[in-house]
Amino acid sequence: MTKSNRIGLGSALALCIALPACSQNGSNANQATSNAASPADAQIQWNSKVEKQLRDAIANAPANGLKPDLFLKGDGQDGAALTQAALKYAEALAHGYSDPTKIFPVYTIPRPSGDVRQGLAQAIQAGDVTSWLNSLPPQTDGYKALSQAHLKFLQLASKTNFQAVSDGDPIKPGSHDKRVPALAVALVATGYLQTPAQGAAPSRYSQQMVAAVKQLQSDFGLKTDGIVGGNTLSAVNLGPGGLARECAIAMERLRWLQRDPPKTRIDVNTAATLLDYWRDGQHADRREVVAGEPDKQTPQIQAPIVNLVAYPKWRVPDSIVESEISKKGSGWLQQNNFTMENGRYVQESGPKNSLGIVKFDMDDKQAIYLHDTPAKALFGLPERHRSHGCVRVQNAVAFANAIAGEQGVQDQFQQAMAGQEEKFVKLKQPIPVRLMYQTAFWDGSRIQFRPDVYGWDDNVAAALGLVRGVKWAPVQQSGDIGP
């Protein structure tokens, strides 16, 4: 890619969907680390070779979902300004441009460490700033795929003046609607449709377009019925700039993470409601989960599973007692096995228990954990933000059995399950759990997107100098009292 094209992509990044810009609120950081000049910076000597490498790297910042003018503006900077630009860009690549602990009220996932100043000095001395900067962001397949997708969508955005499809009644397969031509243009603009079929009625929602919409719905985790309305219309109206924005936000979130996470861990994407289990560095399992409702958000935390709990009791938090349990009659409480222990509501062990028959007990100040559930039907829904903040795990008993076997506590766990009373089985090696929020991610074959049900993307976008996103349809409340 030529330098002029890279600069063009930087300009295109500013196009990310033509909606009102977010207020910055002082949040666009490099706030994780101060880049104020230090005495060591004065010893950094720039020459024309390494200066060109830095300028070329920053011009190519869109490959990392970042706008070049966040770091360098114009061509007239002196050595001190170049040093500060280099440190700021390196910091953004190594740790993230923004600080999630300043964006979100709760964020406890460990972040990368290290000072980029020494690396910059060594890179300049070696005459190779390019390779050093390229080594700083995540080197994973997922990050690389998001980078490629981001550049692709920026290119698509630069080729069209995207116009959103207007709201209205749902557009159903085979129907006629005056918005169909606009829908076709939008699908072409985002790469989901090549060219509408020749000779087709302009207002008819054809099978070719239906197939394109179904692919989009699949990529967004939506019901693949081909009907354009609700969140499907919102996904269409992201346009190529909006899809680029989603990729940029996702890359920033990945830069917040440790480059060497625990080899054995559980990663939960609460936006996609998916759980991935990594064992000894290999992907061992994926299953669906239920995460918190939009007003009962599952926080972004890391905490270890320390016990498997057979037939857990549910000690109801005060917030749920006040909002849910206090409104129930004595008959309902008795039917669902609620009692009082030490002045607190407790749901006794059993098949009706809201935790199901197994709990993955985590050492966490937020009182968040993974657990089974009697509400198995929720796992069959495309939209699974239905809990009070904890994470319900599909086929949780089988998952617990697998972990118990790997940890050498299979016999103890089986005995505990046979007793059908609450019993704790301690793991020999605690398993870290990371609860993350990724609205765009690589699934191994395609980039997947998800609606921003918590509205957290706008916070990250504001820090990156990007515009506000589309409005997603509200999530239907389940009326479920469980955690």
Could you give a quick summary of the protein structure above?
This protein is an alpha+beta fold and 483 residues long.
N- to C-terminal separation? 51 Å
Total number of distinct structural domains:
3
Kindly state the mean pLDDT as a whole number? 90
Rg for CA atoms: 25 Å
**Strands in their spatial order, largest beta sheet:** 1-2-3-11-9-8-4-12
Strand fraction band? 15-25%
Using the alpha-carbon principal axes, give the shape: globular
Ranges where pLDDT stays below 50 over 5 or more residues in a row are: 1-12, 14-34
> Count the helices. How many?
16
Largest sheet: 8 strands, mixed, barrel
Q: Count the E strands.
A: 14
Structural class: alpha+beta
Helicity level, as a percent range? 25-40%
Helix-strand pattern, N to C?
A: HHHHHHHHHHHEEEEEHHEEEEEEHHEEEH
